[in-house]
Design brief:
single chain, about 750 residues, alpha+beta, Aldehyde Oxidoreductase, domain 3, Aldehyde Oxidoreductase, domain 4, 3 domains, six-stranded mixed beta sheet, 19 helices, about 30% helix, binds ligand MTE, binds hypoxanthine, binds dioxothiomolybdenum(VI) ion
C-alpha cells in the first residue's frame, strides 16, 4: 500500500471542481427558504404578523410551527427542541418562521415586513447561574475511582481553583445547508451537508410524520464539519424537506455565514472547579473536579459531550483516587454541540490547569509533575478500563529527547534574563484520547461493494467525507483487499438507501468502522472468487488465491488468470459480484449505572512541546514552535494523517488563544462575523510545526494498525495556553492571571500588569 498517497480529492478541491450542496445544479421551480429567527433570547411570543410579508412579490408561503405535518421536534438525544418555535423562544437565533420565495432576495426582503411581539423572560447565559436555578438539560454524571475524601484527608499538599474555557465557532468553509426534492409517492430526497445522514433521515421522517423509508438522504462531501454537522445539520434539512414535501417543489435552505454563526451552536464553554492533592515526590494522590457545561437552550449532543469530558478528566495521567462530576446546564444561547474532541479538550484543560497551579505553588516546572504521573500499562482509568498498549511515556520521552527539552529550558531562561520586553514560555502537553463512540451501540458500520463486469468497483458506506480523507482511506482498503489499483475504484456518495442505519461520521472512528466494513465486503467477494478459481483449476477448496496488481496468484504461483478474466468468468458462472460488509467493534462495553466498563477500542497518545514569545508592551504573542511526537500506529496515509495533526493543532491553538465567542447579558452573539471572531490565519500559525511519527505496531483495533487521527491532535493546542501563560509569568511573576481560555492578547496584556 502506498502510504504516501495523499488525499485523492485534493486536485479537485484546489481547482474548484468538487461539488458541495450549493453547487448542485438547481432543478426548475426551486424555491428558496429564509429563516426568520428570534430577536430575543428568552420570551413568550405574544403575537406575530406576517400577512404583509406573504403578499410581497416572489413570496410563495410563510410556514410556522402550525404547518409542521408531523412532530415539531428535532432533538436528537432528548426531545426538547422544536424545529420552529411555538409559544416560547429560548435563544436569539431560534427559528420561528420559514419564508419561502422564488428568489433568495425576495425571501430576504420579506423578513423586514414581519412584526413580532415577545414578552421578555429572564435570560441566563452563565452555566453556574443556570445550575444554581436547577436548570439542567440532562441528569448529572459522576465517575468515581477509589476514595477521594480519604485521600485528601491524608494529603498535606493540595490546591483548589476554578477554570473557564470558551466556546468555539466551527467555521466550516461550507455553511450548513440542504436541498430537498419532492419524489413521487409522498417521498423526499435531500442533499444535505451533514455528518449524520441517518440522523437527518430520522429527523426529517419525524417532522414530516412519515416512515424513514420515504426519506432519502444523499451526501457527496462536506466543506468541513468539525462536529458542527453531527446533529445540527438536521434542522436545515427538515426545513427544506418540509417545504418540498408540502409545496411539491424543490426547496433549498442554506444560511449565509452570519446567519449560520448566529443561529447554530458551538463548542460547549465550561466553567469548572478542581482540587488536586500531591505528595512530596510530586505524585498526584487525589483529583476532584466539577464541570459546569454550558449546554445552551436544548440538549442536542451535550449529554454525550458531558460524558466524554469525564472520560478524559485525567488526560494521560494515572491518579489513584478520582472523583469527577459533570452538570449539563441549560442557558439561553443556541444549543451547543459537538466540536473536535467532543468534551475531551474541556476536561483536559482543567487537569492541566490543576497541575500547572500545583507546579507554580511548589516552584517546579509543570513538566516535572506531568512526567512523574504519566500512565502506564496496567493502570486503571477512572471508568474502569485497564491501560494497555500505552504509549504515553514513549511519546513524552521521545519528545523530550528529540526536541532537546533541557537545552530549550536553558535557552529560554537565558533569553528571558537578557530581554526585558520580550519573554518566552514553553509547555509540554501530553494527550491520551479514547477511540470509539462512548455509546457502544454506535460502533457499527456497513459497506456495499459492487464489482462491475469490466473489473471496476463501486464502494458505498456510511462514511461522510469532510476533508479528513476517509474516502481515500476506504479506496486504499478496497484496493488492497481486491488486489487492484485505486484507479479502478469509485467512492460513491453516502446515501441512506444504499447503506442504512449509519452512525454519524464522528468520534474519529469513521475510518476504522467503515474501512473494516469495506474489508468484510471485499473478503466475501474474494472468498467467492477463490472457490471459483479452485473449481476452474480443479484444485481443492484449500487453495490460497491472492491478487496483486490485478494478477492472480494460486498458492503463491502466478496463474494465467487476471482480475478482468476472473470477474468475467464469475459473471458467466452467475456468481454474486456484490457484497454487503458489516463491522461492529469487538470487546467494548460500558455500564452507565456503574459508570464502569471498557468503552474504547484503543487510545491514541502523543506529546507536544510548544514555545512562544510574548511582546510585553503590547500583549501580543507568536507561537514560535509546536513540536510533536504523535502515535499514528502504522499510518496508512502519511500526508492525510499529517494534515489532520497540523489542522488539529492550529484549530486547538485557535480555541485556546484567540477564538472568543462572546454573548452579552441579553444573549446576543457579539462575535457574529469574521471581523469580531478571530481565527488563526497564516500569520498566527506556529512558525515551526514539526510532527514526528511514532510508529507503533500494537495489535490494536485500528484499521491496518493505522490509528484514528481526527480529533486527538486538537488537544495539543492546549499547550499554547500554558506556554503563553508561562511567558506572562516570566515578565510578572506575581501576576494574578486566571485559568481562563482563550488567552487573548487582551488577557495577556492585563496579566502582564496585574498585581
Ligand atoms: N478534518 C477536516 N478536514 N474537516 C473536518 O470537518 N472533522 C474532525 C476531524 N478532522 C474534520 C476533520 C472531527 S470533529 C472528527 S470527529 C473527525 O475528523 C471525523 O473523521 P474521522 O472519524 O474519519 O477521523
Ligand atoms: N464522539 C463523537 N460524537 C459522538 C460520540 C462520541 O463519543 N457519541 C455520540 N456522538
Ligand atoms: Mo467529531 S466532534 O466527533 O464530529
Amino acid at each position: 500500500m502506498n502510504n504516501n498517497l495523499g488525499n485523492v480529492d485534493a486536485p479537485n478541491h484546489v481547482t474548484g471542481k468538487s461539488i458541495y450542496v450549493d453547487d448542485i445544479p438547481v432543478v426548475q421551480g426551486t424555491l428558496y427558504i429564509k429563516v426568520f429567527d428570534s430577536p430575543v433570547a428568552h420570551g413568550i411570543i405574544k403575537s406575530i404578523d406576517f400577512s404583509k410579508a406573504e403578499q410581497l412579490p416572489g413570496v410563495v408561503k410563510i410556514f410556522s410551527h402550525k404547518d409542521v405535518p408531523g412532530e415539531n421536534q428535532i432533538g436528537g438525544i432528548i426531545p426538547d427542541e422544536p424545529l420552529l418555535a411555538d409559544h416560547e423562544v429560548h435563544f436569539q437565533g431560534q427559528p420561528i418562521l420559514l419564508i419561502v420565495a422564488e428568489t433568495e432576495e425576495a425571501a430576504e426582503e420579506a423578513t423586514k415586513h414581519i412584526t413580532i411581539e415577545i414578552e421578555p423572560l429572564p435570560i441566563i447565559v452563565n452555566p453556574r447561574e443556570a445550575f444554581a436555578k436547577g436548570n439542567l438539560l440532562s441528569p448529572s454524571r459522576k465517575f468515581v475511582k477509589g476514595n477521594v475524601a480519604d485521600a485528601f484527608k491524608q494529603c498535606k499538599i493540595y490546591f483548589e481553583g476554578q477554570t473557564e474555557s470558551g466556546g468555539q465557532e466551527h467555521l466550516y468553509l461550507e455553511t450548513q445547508g440542504a436541498y430537498a426534492l419532492p419524489l413521487e409517492g409522498d417521498c423526499v430526497k435531500i442533499y444535505s451537508s451533514t455528518q449524520g445522514p441517518t440522523a437527518v433521515q430520522r429527523t426529517v421522517a419525524r417532522v414530516l410524520g412519515v416512515g424513514m423509508h420515504r426519506v432519502e438522504v444523499d451526501v457527496t462531501r462536506l466543506g468541513g464539519g468539525f462536529g458542527g454537522k453531527e446533529d445540527q445539520a438536521s434542522g436545515w434539512a427538515a426545513m427544506a424537506a418540509m417545504v418540498a414535501y408540502i409545496l411539491k417543489q424543490p426547496a433549498k435552505c442554506i444560511p449565509h455565514r452570519m446567519d449560520d454563526m448566529r443561529m447554530t451552536g458551538k463548542r460547549n464553554p465550561y466553567s469548572s472547579d478542581y482540587k488536586i492533592g500531591l505528595d512530596e515526590q510530586y505524585n498526584i494522590i487525589a483529583y476532584e473536579a466539577t464541570y459546569y457545561q454550558n449546554g445552551g437552550a436544548a440538549a442536542d449532543l451535550s449529554p454525550a459531550i458531558l460524558e466524554r469530558t469525564l472520560f478524559h478528566a485525567t488526560n494521560s495521567y494515572s491518579i489513584p483516587p478520582v472523583k469527577v462530576i459533570a452538570h449539563s446546564c441549560k442557558t439561553n444561547v443556541p444549543p451547543n454541540t459537538a466540536f473536535r474532541g467532543f468534551g475531551g479538550p474541556q476536561g483536559m484543560f482543567v487537569i492541566e490547569s490543576a497541575i500547572d497551579h500545583a507546579a507554580k505553588q511548589l516552584g517546579v516546572d509543570a513538566a516535572i509533575i506531568q512526567q512523574k504521573n504519566l500512565m502506564d500499562n496496567g493502570d486503571e482509568f477512572p471508568y474502569g478500563q485497564i491501560v494497555t498498549e500505552c504509549e504515553a511515556k514513549k511519546c513524552w520521552d521521545e519528545a523530550a529527547t528529540k526536541y532537546e527539552l533541557e537545552k530549550i529550558k536553558k535557552e529560554i531562561s537565558a533569553f528571558n534574563s537578557c530581554n526585558s520586553w520580550l519573554k518566552k514560555g514553553f509547555s509540554l502537553m501530553p494527550v491520551c484520547f479514547g477511540i470509539s463512540f462512548t455509546n457502544t451501540m454506535m460502533n457499527q458500520a456497513r459497506a456495499l461493494v459492487h464489482v462491475y463486469t469490466d473489473g471496476t468497483v463501486g464502494v458505498s458506506t456510511g462514511a461522510v467525507e469532510m476533508g479528513q480523507g476517509v474516502n481515500t482511506k476506504m479506496m486504499q482498503v478496497a484496493a488492497k483487499n481486491l488486489g487492484i489499483s485505486i484507479d479502478n475504484i469509485k467512492l460513491e456518495t453516502t446515501n441512506t438507501t444504499r447503506v442504512a442505519n449509519t452512525s454519524p461520521s464522528a468520534a474519529s472512528a469513521t475510518a476504522d468502522l467503515n474501512c473494516k466494513a469495506v474489508e468484510d465486503a471485499c473478503a466475501q467477494i474474494m472468498q467467492r472468487l477463490r472457490l471459483m478459481v479452485s473449481e476452474i483449476k480443479e484444485l481443492g477448496d484449500n487453495i490460497v488465491v491472492t491478487i496483486e496488481d490485478s494478477a492472480i496468484f494460486v498458492d503463491g504461483v502466478q496463474s494465467d488468470l487476471n482480475w478482468l478474466t476472473l470477474v468475467q468468468q464469475a459473471f458467466v458462472r452467475r456468481i454474486n459480484l456484490s457484497a454487503k460488509g458489516h463491522y461492529a467493534t469487538p470487546l467494548i462495553n460500558f455500564d452507565k449505572i456503574k459508570e464502569k466498563g471498557h468503552p474504547f477500542a484503543y487510545h491514541v497518545y502523543g506529546t507536544a512541546l510548544t514555545m512562544v514569545t510574548v511582546d510585553c508592551i503590547r500583549g501580543t504573542y507568536e507561537i514560535d514552535s509546536v513540536q510533536v511526537v504523535h502515535d499514528f500506529g502504522t499510518s496508512m496515509n502519511r500526508p492525510v494523517d499529517l494534515g489532520q495533526v497540523e489542522g488539529g493543532i492550529v484549530q486547538g491553538i485557535g480555541w485556546m488563544t484567540m477564538e472568543e465567542v462572546v454573548y452579552n447579558a441579553s444573549g446576543k452573539l457579539l462575535s457574529n462575523a469574521l471581523s469580531t471572531y478571530k481565527i488563526p490565519d497564516i500569520y498566527s500559525v506556529p512558525k515551526t510545526l514539526d510532527v514526528h511519527f511514532l510508529n507503533t505496531d500494537n495489535n490494536s483495533l485500528a484499521i491496518l494498525k493505522s490509528k484514528a487521527v481526527g480529533e486527538p491532535p486538537l488537544m495539543y493546542g492546549i499547550g499554547a495556553y500554558f506556554a503563553i501563560r508561562n511567558a506572562v509569568l516570566a515578565f510578572n511573576p506575581g501576576s494574578t492571571i486566571k485559568y481562563e481560555a482563550p488567552i487573548t492578547p487582551e488577557k495577556v496584556l492585563m496579566g502582564l500588569y496585574a498585581k
